[in-house]
Amino acid sequence: MARRLLEAEDVSKHFGGLVALNEVSFDVLEGEILGLLGPNGAGKTTLFNVIAGTFPPSSGRVRFAGREITGLKPYKICRMGLARTFQIPKPFPTLDVYQNILSVGMFGRGRDRQGDDLKRDVDRALEQFSLADKRSTPAGDLAVFELRMLEIARALVTRPRLLLLDEAMAGLNPKETRELSRIVQGVREGGITVLMIEHNMRATMGLSDRVIVLDQGMKIADGDPNQVCKDPRVVEAYLGEAYVEC
Amino acid sequence: MKLSTFARYSPFAVFVVLAFLPSFAGTYYTALLTSVLCWIGLAVSWHFFSGTTKYVSLGTAAFFGIGVYITAVFGKSLPFPVVLLLAAAVCFVFAALVGLVTLRLRGIYFAILTFGLAELLNNAILFWETQVTGTRGRFVASMEVYYPILCITFILLVVMVILRRTRLGRGLRMIGENEEAAISYGVNTTLYKVLGFAVSSMFMGVLGAAFAPRWGYIDSGMAFSSLYSFMPAIMTLFGGAGWMVGPIVGAVVISVLQEYLLTTFKDYFLIILGAIMMIVILALPDGMTGRLMRRRPKAAPVPPAGPGAGLAAGEDE
What we know:
The complex is a heterodimer of chains A (246) and B (317). With 246 residues, chain A is of the alpha/beta class. Helix content of chain A is 34%, strand content 25%. The longest helix of chain B has 27 residues, at 27-53. The chains are: A alpha/beta (246), B mainly alpha (317).
């Protein structure tokens, strides 16, 4: 069995009286693409924020690559090799696309690489994410799909071992969704483990090796995508909506 | 983005010209030039931290004033360069401490707190002088400060240009662009903000210490005048905060304009200055250099062709 790269153990998060996460436990195995599904408000992004260190969990522990990261600051977690994207992209708006990627490359896990290596990595990322002709465009002027691409390119230039994607496909058309799927597969083939939040089940089914489903802050399913989507609790959580059919 | 040889060496040429200028210009123009250089230094220091991170500090007077007072107190007992270094060290440490406490505040709260800092120091010193020592202000050994100010401002500009390319400069820029993204992608935002604020304040203190001997006598109201807090911010906005040339242009234009208006229309100069500023800010929201910078797009590099590019593009297949 593959090594466990990320381990979440009984993670809970309360905001005042609201229980956003209720004792969620799961593992991410090295080299897999794990889908994190659930209806709106299920706690998916909260879970990402706890893992990435945006805020600490109310209780529970998170381990990454065998080291405890519970409550560490986001920049430290990023330097250990865990990079995330944001559901609403957070570009550096007045920096151009090249500078967006280059600046991030000076930090993160790959912070000690030489200047020329970094520039080569940035150029490669521009090619890989079809941003080469937008190189000198301020990130604030990009279209939605380009912003998503930039978001992933920036996360990858930190040289992560685990990439967290937060609804990278939301609002994209079918062609763009296909291109993004291809990129996510390419990322995994490059040796990077992927944990992706998707609101829409169908979009992730073909892509994920395994999925877990959250509902109202609790994990209600964990396993093979084809089995999970037949799970009555999952169907109920999605109110039997059409996209559960798969 | 390599600077051309001309752009790289022209600042040194300007420095040499400025170094010889007092021999030709009269006392009045030398004094004016000293003020302009000092304002450039303050505006660029302010821009280094507040312009890039968007944490607007109105505390420039606090650090400038500390510098002034250090010269007033130690100027007679210590050699001048030592006094300057002392001002640098005190302001760096003091700003780092203040930053640790205040830099979790954002927006208007940070501005108000830093503004209060200068007022606090002003009043604390005033209290000490009137209640404890029974004096008001201090005499400063008067001397010509053109060369110290010129050297400090020049060093400051060189240091700022270099720092912008380092991790500190990049990190500060990322914080100003999107702080949450910056911290998520590995920037130790607390450390960088404190360090950036301390470096910026350090130069303000040195400028204060170097400027003090121009006045034979100083008091806390002069040293901590809120003018020093507001002007660098206004000059940067006026010149354009996007690029380092912005604060320089703003400082030159506003300080020269102020001097001209003050000597020509001495009763109405503030009204006229205010009106001009309003017009410029309304007409050019990105400052005087903002539009210029946008008109000059960087040359799009030729896309790398050949087998290397194909390989890179094909990597995710």
